[in-house]
Amino acid sequence: MTNSEQERWSRVKGRLRSTVGEDVYTSWFARMDLEAVQDESVHLSVPTRFLKSWIQAHYAERVLSCWQAEMPEVHRIDLSVRTAMRCATPAKEAPVAVEARRAERSDAKPVSNEVRTSAAASLATSHDALGGSPLDPRLTFASFVVGRANTLAHAAARQVADGRRGDPVMFNPLYIHAGVGLGKTHLLQAVTWAGNAGGERKVLYLTAEKFMYGFVAALKSQTALAFKEALRGIDVLVIDDLQFLQGKSTQAEFCHTLNALIDAGRQVVIAADRPPSDLESLDDRVRSRLAGGLVVEMATLGEDLRLGILKSRVAAARAHHASFDVPEPVLDYLARSITHNGRDLEGAINRLLAHSKLNNQPVTLDMAEREVRDLVRPQEPKRIKIEDIQRVVARQYNVSRSDLLSSRRTANVVRPRQVAMYLAKTLTLRSLPEIGRRFGGRDHTTVLHAVRKIEALVGKDITLNDEVESLKRQLQD
């Protein structure tokens, strides 16, 4: 970079500072560097994608006008994210071009058409520029198989995806929970693809891990304000695997972002493997805000839905392998036998395809039984909730659920409460502090005392042992 270019850049920064003010300049432009000036283009770089997307969306024309005040011949700003090892040439990442609006200028030159990729690739590039997590082009509404287990979740997700900027938000946040492999990520990515396809709204898909990484990286690079403002400028924020969100500062930032978006009428969609009340690692304020929206559970896949998923996967495979065929008896066997989740169903089809193509053999029932035998798992036990335990125990001992959660210490309440705590510890994966919180905010030592007391009594008191076993059967049926 020549001395004259450096002097021009200093003057441009001075103009920019006086135009936007010191606070805005420090937040957004202090870490912007000049890389090169070539013909009618100026190449600038910033350290993060969030800064790039935010500046390009909100300050592009202002940066361009400041340059044109120094160099009238400049009509284009190329903004890119620089790597850790700086070089003299612009960063290798494909730049985001900012063209001057020269429709009224007599010397205006036509803007050349950019090379068009597929619609999916274009949307993915745009989403990636916002700092989103990677999107799978297969996970769209068109490939999502709807059944009784997921009808409500699908309808709610479709409602969000079809919304337009300025429309009133019907339910916020939309919170979808389900076990592994039941379609949560598929629905969330389908919302992102469909929402961005309209071109009117910015829909950002982030895993909880990516959210944590982005926040920590922003703190390290002193661009936390840019990170926050970029997220809060999104029209629809989609967060996947919320159960993995860790760290007090990260959770606090997520809470602030969640509140800011909801209060501004922006849509938030969240998925996790359990309902908000069971996310014991999250702050109470976050759980409360999540529970205040629409909470939808995606149930275990029924046999009809599993068969529909299998047929859909076979059709998708046949698009690339026209001769691939799975007979109906084989599909029926797979739908009946593979009950764990949708990913196992897809894995089964992939195995049959590989075996058929590599060995040049048709798919038969014998082959299927041999190839997928490790995917035929025993039926998972019913997932028992603390609320179910409280309800069944209250009914058994003729007390109310509010009695179990209260501070009352009469004998007819203390024993049922201790039994309920014991069952919560033995039949669920909840920790002692979480169980205590769900029983009226009690300390974990109180829960531990109750568990040990009932453990000791059931070995001596036959009547109590029979009552506890009866409660277990009611909960597991």
TrEMBL record:
Domain AAA+ ATPase: 170-296
Stretches for region Domain I, interacts with DnaA modulators: 1-92
Domain of life: Bacteria
Residue ranges, annotated region (Domain IV, binds dsDNA): 357-477
UniProt-annotated stretches for the region Domain II: 94-133
Protein residues bound to ATP: G181, G183, K184, T185
Residue ranges of the TM segments: none
Domain Chromosomal replication initiator DnaA C-terminal intervals: 385-454
Record's keyword terms, sorted: ATP-binding, Cytoplasm, DNA replication, DNA-binding, Lipid-binding, Nucleotide-binding
Compartments where located: Cytoplasm
Subunit structure: Oligomerizes as a right-handed, spiral filament on DNA at oriC.
Similarity remark: Belongs to the DnaA family.
Note on domains (UniProt): Domain I is involved in oligomerization and binding regulators, domain II is flexibile and of varying length in different bacteria, domain III forms the AAA+ region, while domain IV binds dsDNA.
Function: Plays an essential role in the initiation and regulation of chromosomal replication. ATP-DnaA binds to the origin of replication (oriC) to initiate formation of the DNA replication initiation complex once per cell cycle. Binds the DnaA box (a 9 base pair repeat at the origin) and separates the double-stranded (ds)DNA. Forms a right-handed helical filament on oriC DNA; dsDNA binds to the exterior of the filament while single-stranded (ss)DNA is stabiized in the filament's interior.
Protein name: Chromosomal replication initiator protein DnaA
